[in-house]
Design goal:
Chain A is α+β, with helices and mostly antiparallel strands. Chain A has 17 helices and 19 strands. Chain A folds into four domains: 100 residues, 2-Layer Sandwich (Uridine Diphospho-n-acetylenolpyruvylglucosamine Reductase, domain 2); 126 residues, Uridine Diphospho-n-acetylenolpyruvylglucosamine Reductase, domain 3, CATH 3.30.465; 210 residues, FAD-linked oxidases, C-terminal domain (Vanillyl-alcohol Oxidase, Chain A, domain 3); 41 residues, Orthogonal Bundle (Vanillyl-alcohol Oxidase, Chain A, domain 4). In chain A, strands 5-6-10-8-9 form a five-stranded antiparallel sheet. In chain A, strands 1-2-4-3 form a four-stranded mixed sheet. Chain A has a four-stranded antiparallel sheet with strand order 13-14-12-15. Chain A is globular. Chain B is α+β, with helices and mostly antiparallel strands. Chain B has one domain. The longest helix of chain B is centred in the middle third of the chain and has 14 residues. Classes of the chains: A alpha+beta, B alpha+beta.
Chain lengths: 540, 192
């Protein structure tokens, strides 16, 4: 058994007994095989002393039990690590930030408290998954569309608190941005409702997020200032129609005006998440084509060489798929408007009409429906689709640690970030994931993500190399101002050290909050670099 | 898939003395006889080995459910509902990704992988078998055929298992979901 640091076995056992009294003996897990269920399946420290493993887990079913668990933890100074569904793989999954923490598994707090169809919001507990909320909406034929991440087995609460995102229009696919109101058990066991939830008898908790006074919801994201036990979300009215259209552009340098035009529609909230691609650049997974490998033989090609390469390929350089949601008349009109604007801005732009669908997709057709998340349908297909690919051939990884760098929404920045990542891999002597035709992800509408997936293994030597690669990519990107927005516990201290303006003033502010709100440092010590004073040592 | 309302409770006495719930659905094969050990056998109908596994267990009286890679429908519409009420063991022969997802999901009902044999089917169509299980199973695995009928052989072995006695920590979270594109990697498993 792993014990929390600096906690005696006697105190730990006493705390566990009080947890049992609070939640019932069958909901406290201490055996090795039970605790092993909470290991991070994608851990980059698998089997090593630094692997973040729990000492125990406790699963409260209601708010009062969470409060009691927190009070007990304060009494014995037991570190807690709350999870909702605990399936945020690549970012730690169900494992704690600090080895020896007790996982507070909120899976039993799985009530959908309210879904208001006309006012288009939901209020849920943390153990509710996207599948649960989707089924609730479908079973009642509510005319609401849920914005889901992919895979959809996570929880709206956990996903939004970790700044997860989906696929619909901008203000829904930013999952924290679409939340409205939360309830939090503080580290000292108090209960706080934010926004209009603080006003007794208010009916606008899920409609007006600010209430009065300072807006504090953001401090509960990627942090350790409390345990969120309820959260409200704005939902998208079920659109009458869903229409896709694909645009291709011929030249390498057409990427810049392509992005500018897409951003016009994005910023007017006329489209869902655009899907950029390159018909000649290869996919995200897999080695470059022989032609492209030859072009890259002497390093990153010049713009002229890239234009010549594109011309020789006789295929478009770039593509983007747009998704329109709304009444049939407006989605068709918006697609027509897009064609007009792109044709004017980019000579040679070509257009392909997609299928017009009428959501919701009938239940019997869901299984075969492609691109489910863009239609608000949660899925786990991503595992089936990506588990076998050319990159897994010789040496399949067991998981991956994702590095998602945020870069400005412009072509030159995409190319710069791709080159930084490419060169980091080359320095490590590893096949790069990026090249001149890499395309960005647009989860958050106002900036791009350039994603790198570093493999993780059940093998310490391989993981050591992956850690070195991950750190190099993070360091190189930070030098260029490309910041990663979330990472696994293994790299959270390193990540936060990059946000270093004015002698790490942001982290120092976080630490002051921590010392004030959680004086015993019991909630998720170390999460995103926020260590309690007693554990800070020379980390600060 | 089946849902809660389509579950027919039957009072078939079993050796273990527990009730077995019979799911009724077009994709679920009705058993020829009632089996004692498993609530369900899951198989990926895309693979002949898995179909053989299911047919064998079906004839031994185990209820079977088909998937095609994605386990979401099976879990959220069906299996989770039953396992929350009775955590009876579930057997399967699927690809790695399906097992990976089910293993992660099974934590919600406090169940885990307790037995696992990995089958790597090489380009010549012959399989290599590696058990992550107790010594006797490792030994038995060595005698599994290399040809595609190993699925049936594995099922036959499962039909003799008492899953309540399986508790092999080495089988837990043994791999991730990934597998080579140029080989087929299947896994026989028990979640209990």
């Amino acid at each position: 058994m792993v014990l929390p640091p600096n906690i005696s076995e006697a105190d730990f056992n006493a705390a566990v007994n009080e947890f049992r009294a609070a939640v019932g003996p069958s909901w406290v897990f201490t055996s090795d095989e039970d605790v092993a269920l909470y290991r991070d399946s994608y851990s980059i420290y698998w089997g090593e002393p630094e692997e973040r493993v729990a000492s125990a887990a406790v699963a409260p079913a209601k708010v009062e039990e969470v409060q009691q668990v927190v009070r007990t933890a304060n009494k014995y100074h037991i570190p807690l690590y709350p999870i909702s569904t605990g399936r945020n793989l690549t970012y730690g999954g169900s494992a704690p930030t600090m080895r020896g923490s007790v996982v507070v598994d909120l899976k039993r707090m799985n009530r959908i408290l309210e879904v208001d169809e006309k006012r288009a919001f939901a209020l849920v507990e943390p153990g509710v998954s996207y599948f649960d909320l989707y089924h609730y909406i479908r079973e009642r034929s509510l005319k609401l569309m849920l914005d889901v991440p992919d895979p959809g087995w996570g929880s709206p609460v956990g996903n939004s608190l970790d700044h997860g995102a989906g696929y619909l229009t901008a203000h829904f696919r930013d999952h924290f941005g679409s939340h409205c109101g939360m309830e939090v058990v503080t580290p000292e066991g108090d209960l706080v409702r934010t926004g209009m939830g603080a006003l007794p008898n208010s009916e606008t908790w899920q409609e007006f997020r600010y209430g009065a006074g300072p807006y504090i919801d953001g401090i509960f994201t990627q942090s350790n200032f409390g345990i969120v036990t309820k959260m409200g979300f704005w939902l998208m009215p079920m659109p009458e129609s869903y229409l896709t259209g694909t645009i291709t552009v011929p030249r390498y340098q057409d990427f810049e005006p392509l992005i500018e035009e897409v951003s016009y529609f994005e910023d007017l909230s006329l489209i869902g998440m655009p899907q950029y691609g390159s018909p000649i650049g290869g996919g995200f997974f897999g080695p470059p084509s022989p032609d492209l490998a030859a072009l890259m033989q002497n390093g990153w090609p010049s713009m002229g060489a890239l234009e010549n390469y594109v011309a020789a390929q006789k295929r478009p350089a770039w593509s983007v798929e747009l998704n329109f949601y709304g009444p049939e008349e407006t989605v068709r009109a918006n697609w027509q408007a897009a064609k007009r604007r792109f044709a004017k801005a980019i000579p040679g732009a070509a257009f392909q009409d997609g299928e017009l669908l009428a959501p919701p997709i009938p239940k019997e057709k869901e299984t075969t429906q492609g691109d489910k998340p863009r239609l608000g349908i949660p899925a786990l297909e991503v595992f089936t689709i990506t588990s076998r690919n050319p990159m897994t051939n010789s040496d399949p990884a067991d998981g991956h640690a994702d590095f998602f760098a945020y870069v400005p929404r412009k072509a030159s920045a995409v190319w710069a970030a791709a080159r930084v990542m490419y060169e980091a891999y080359r320095e490590m002597g590893m096949p790069p994931m990026h090249g001149p035709f890499s395309t960005p992800i647009n989860y958050y509408s106002r900036c791009f993500i350039m994603a790198t997936l570093v493999p993780t293994y059940r093998n310490a030597a391989k993981n050591a190399r992956s850690r070195e690669l991950f750190a190099k990519v993070m360091d190189r990107c930070a030098e260029h101002g490309f910041g990663c927005y979330r990472t696994s516990p293994a790299f959270q201290d390193r990540l936060m050290s990059k946000y270093s303006f004015n002698n790490n003033a942001l982290l120092r502010f976080h630490q002051k909050l921590k010392d004030s709100i959680d004086p015993n440092g019991i909630i998720s010590p170390g999460r995103y670099g926020i260590w309690p004073a007693k554990m800070r040592g020379n980390r600060a | 898939m089946v849902n809660r309302r389509s579950v027919l409770k039957i009072g078939a006495a079993t050796v273990a003395g527990v009730l077995v719930k019979m799911p009724v659905s077009g994709r679920n094969l009705s058993p020829a006889k009632t089996h004692i050990a498993f609530h369900r056998a899951i198989f990926d109908e895309r693979f002949a080995e898995c179909r053989g596994f299911a047919a064998e267990l079906h004839s031994a009286g185990v209820f079977t459910s088909a998937i095609r890679g994605d386990v979401a429908g099976l879990w959220y519409d069906d299996l989770r509902v039953h396992l929350r009420e009775d955590r009876l063991p579930v057997a399967g022969l699927t690809d790695r990704a399906a097992l990976f997802c089910l293993e992660e999901l099974a934590r919600d009902v406090d169940m885990r992988v307790v037995f696992r044999v990995d089958h790597t089917i090489e380009l010549d169509g012959l399989a290599k078998h590696v058990a992550a299980a107790e010594a006797s199973s490792v030994s038995a695995t060595r005698r599994l055929p290399k040809e595609p009928h190993f699925g049936r052989a594995m099922a036959e072995r499962f039909s003799r298992l008492d899953p309540r006695e399986l508790r092999d920590a080495a089988a837990q979270k043994l791999t991730g979901p990934f597998a080579p594109e140029d080989k087929t990697m299947l896994v026989s498993w028990v979640i209990a």
